[in-house]
Amino acid sequence: MLKTHDFKTETKCRHCGAGLSTLLADLGATPVSNDYLRPEDRDGAEPYYPLRAFVCDECHLAQLEDFRRADDLFREDYAYFSSVSSSWVAHAKRYAEMVSDRFNLTGESTVVEVASNDGYLLQFFKSAGKNVLGVEPCRSVAEYAIKEKGIPSRIEFFGEETGRRLAAEGYAADLTAANNVLAHVPDINDFVSGFREILKPEGVSTFEFPHLLNLIRLNQFDTIYHEHFSYLSLLAAERFFKTNGLRVFDVEQIQTHGGSLRLFVCKADASWQRTGRVDEVLELERAAGLETPEVYGSYAEQVRETKRALLELLIGLKRQGKTIVGYGAPAKGNTLLNYCGIGADFLEFTVDRSPQKQNMYLPGTRLAIKAPEAIDELKPDYILILPWNIKDEIVQDMAHVRDWGCQFIVPIPRAEIF
Predict the structure, then answer these.
(1) Cβ-Cβ contacts under 8 Å for 58 (sequence gap 6 or more)
(2) Which member of 58, 59, 75, 390 has the greatest number of CB atoms within 10 A?
């Protein structure tokens, strides 16, 4: 087991300011996972940054060291469009129906989504007659939401000042949604304070994020990348919401992104009653050791063993003369490939359904990103699924590859052929 005192850093916790010395994972140095390369840039230099995650001994927030600002990472030409995944859009639709019923949203209700991307979620509230507003810092996806889906969107980062200003402009919210964005914000106190400012007195905010407990139990180390500043548990979230005038009154464990939490949050003095599910999840995390440094120290070896198992599988297949391609170009896939050293010596190329990524190259490995039809042309022996969190959707969409004997490989939680 790695000793926590073997790793020291001057970084301070982004929530409570305590020093960080407990290492969660050291993935070496990698390029930024969403910095896809254009053809004219593929032979140029790329910046690499250390990719190390630590855990605060005081508030238990897992987090990266600071190397790049959020406005450097989330650029105007951000390539991730949420609507590309049909299973994610279906998840958004179910959520919209659930919260509309649970919180009695009407045509007079205002719904604000932070990190609204291409309108994948707000389209369902808009079609149901709700007042909607998206807040999205990345121009490419926000403009798509505005032009293609008619979702009014503000192209800016969200925080305390933004929430206060939008409320003054008439966007005080009955409901706010923030899906898979908490991890992306460097100043978590300013960010969550924005929800306190924009909510109506009895308004509700929901937050979804991958659960740190699953990252550890299921070896999901590839979800660690530079665009993710934090890795979240309910133990840590309760603390930073309370610090900023909010409280968690309910929680759901959901299956998205390899196992996530959905928190229901209100103002500290709102009347929503705390459910027993909050204490159940807190006890689950405590029982798993998330308040102790030992569980994090042992995780580093789990990461290395997951890498070894994947490489052993791929090396064996290549020695048999097998052809392997990747499916998907997600940020998590770039962490996996760069940390494991998997490039053109193992994979012919990868494919992605997003037109914004096609004809680009993966950062670091420089693998070509093609349209899915390239798989039908090559007819490989194996497909390595990089966005393993939607493997069922991919296997269903690509079921026809079984006709020539092609099989799938999933790398997480352990390399497996199926």
Answers:
(1) 13, 16, 18
(2) 390
